[in-house]
Write a structure and sequence with these properties.
This protein is mostly helical. It has one domain. It is built from 25 helices and no strands. Helix 7 packs antiparallel against helix 8 and helix 15 runs antiparallel to helix 16. The longest helix has 22 residues. The radius of gyration is 23 Å and the shape is globular.
Length: 466
């Protein structure tokens, strides 16, 4: 029954959902219209707000590009390929692959959502080896596994709340930091972790399509198959001159690359030794880069691997600025604050977690960045919670602010399943040379979104923090 519902929603999404770029354009126009109607902004002010925000995600977009290509290049190494060959001895049926990919993805993304790239690489390699996998559904499994990031070590809102002199403290909205014991270390967060790590793989298994003729990876490949191309080592050998040369010795020098790897390892040890488990985007990219250099051994092999890994990142490069423009409209016209204030105004001491959760989900469509979204709606939501909790003990009000904040984070994360922004992390890897679009994938996520929305809404309201 549940599997049939998933199939029906997929048919509807394929019929009505446009390309991810068209989705961004439509969202831009919708948010612009809302700003014109709901705020005092003039058409020119809306347009200038759009432009002012257009380049705000350039650094973030570049980080995403580097996460994708450095992660993908690791997967192209012989060591990883041998490891995946070994894995397929034990994970060798489509249902096992679906379950395993969601489980591993959820566990990896508890460390950082950038590790979704590793899940995508693993899933593609399994799809190339295991027969009978419905590839669009497997892509959906990978994307759904990203949901755990908001519960783990890189969850930006809880980390922000626990940062000295954060913007909320500087603005006088908070008097002090909110420790992660109230957020990531809460009973509520552990309940959410249990839901995604245990419940999500089982749910996606129940939703798995039962096609007699599934759309397998090799059916969707355009042109040559996965096995028709030269290996990286073979291509590197073909690039050498007939006669021995200094340039070829440098290009294929293990020693030269080894010194860079050694320097990188020294810094990684220093970083974690002095800063603790600080897993920000930059150090993750650096780790991926150094690990890729280590696994590919020589400079020319790494160049070839990065060239192959970079072949399908155009979507990230030109679509991220459009979402940054949408964020600019929400931020600079005051539309985001008005939306948060409107939702918070109807909240009570019993319902405020639900409205915070709802706010996170709604605003994420326009600002698909947890940190950026919280900068817009966080202050208004926390002020509303402080007013609702007026007269209560300080510790209780702190707990209420923490609950509202992580509820925003949970809503923000789940609503990604209805919009393809972060699918751009997955598509460059899983759709490289493959005839597949966002509309082929998103329909499989609609039923999981509905079920998780109901369960998470109940959890944020009723499960205690501690």
């Amino acid at each position: 029954m549940i599997g049939k519902l998933g199939e029906k929603s997929t048919v509807l999404f394929r019929k009505y959902m446009p390309d991810a770029f068209v989705f961004a354009i439509l969202l831009t126009l919708l948010v612009s219209l809302c700003a014109l109607v709901w705020t005092a902004a003039s058409p020119l002010e809306v347009i200038t707000s759009w432009y002012d925000g257009f380049f705000d995600l350039l650094a973030f977009g570049m980080q995403i590009v580097l996460i994708i290509i450095t992660g993908f290049s690791i997967a192209l190494s012989p060591v990883i390929n041998k490891g995946i060959d070994w894995l397929t001895r034990y994970v060798n049926t489509p249902r096992q692959v679906y379950f395993f990919v969601v489980l591993i993805g959820m566990l990896l993304c508890l460390v950082s959502f950038g590790w979704l790239v590793i899940t995508a690489v693993l899933a593609r390699e399994l799809a190339a080896r295991v027969k009978g996998i419905h590839y669009p559904f497997l892509v959906a499994c990978v994307y759904f596994s990203m949901n755990s990031w908001v519960l783990g070590l890189s969850s930006s809102i809880p980390l922000l709340l626990n940062t000295d002199k954060n913007f909320l403290i500087e603005a006088g909205i908070l008097d002090a930091v909110i420790p992660t014991a109230y957020t990531l270390g809460s009973y509520l967060n552990f309940a959410m972790i249990l839901l995604v790590v245990v419940g999500a793989p089982i749910m996606m298994l129940l939703l798995a399509p039962k096609h007699k003729n599934p759309k397998e990876l090799h059916d969707l490949l355009e042109g040559t198959s996965e096995t028709d191309t030269l290996s990286i080592a073979e291509e590197a050998a073909h690039m050498q001159l007939v006669k021995k040369s200094v340039s070829d010795k440098l290009n294929n020098s293990i020693i030269l690359q080894g010194f860079i790897v050694l320097m990188g390892i020294c810094y990684i040890v220093y970083h974690f030794g002095t800063k603790g488990l600080d897993l920000n985007f930059n150090i993750m990219i650096f780790i991926f880069l150094i690990l890729g250099l280590l696994l590919h051994k020589t400079p020319i092999r790494y160049v070839i691997a990065m060239k192959r890994a970079s072949a399908n990142i155009s979507g990230v490069l030109f679509q991220y600025p459009f979402y940054a423009g949408i964020m600019g409209i929400m931020l600079y016209t005051g539309l985001g604050e008005k939306l948060a204030a409107a939702l918070a105004s109807v909240a009570t001491i019993d319902s405020y977690p639900f409205f915070a959760y709802l706010t996170g989900g709604f605003v994420n469509f326009a600002i698909p960045s947890a940190g950026g979204e919280f900068a817009v709606v966080g202050p208004g939501m926390i002020e509303a919670v402080k007013e609702i909790g007026s007269g209560l003990p300080e510790t209780e009000v702190t707990a209420m602010m923490a609950r509202a904040s992580i509820s925003i984070a949970y809503g923000e994360s789940l609503s990604n399943m209805l919009q393809p922004f972060y699918l751009l992390l997955v598509i460059p890897i899983m759709a490289k040379g493959v005839r597949i679009q966002a509309r082929d994938v998103m329909g499989y996520l609609f039923i999981p979104f509905l079920l998780f929305f109901i369960i998470q809404a109940l959890l944020v309201v009723f499960v205690p923090l501690n």
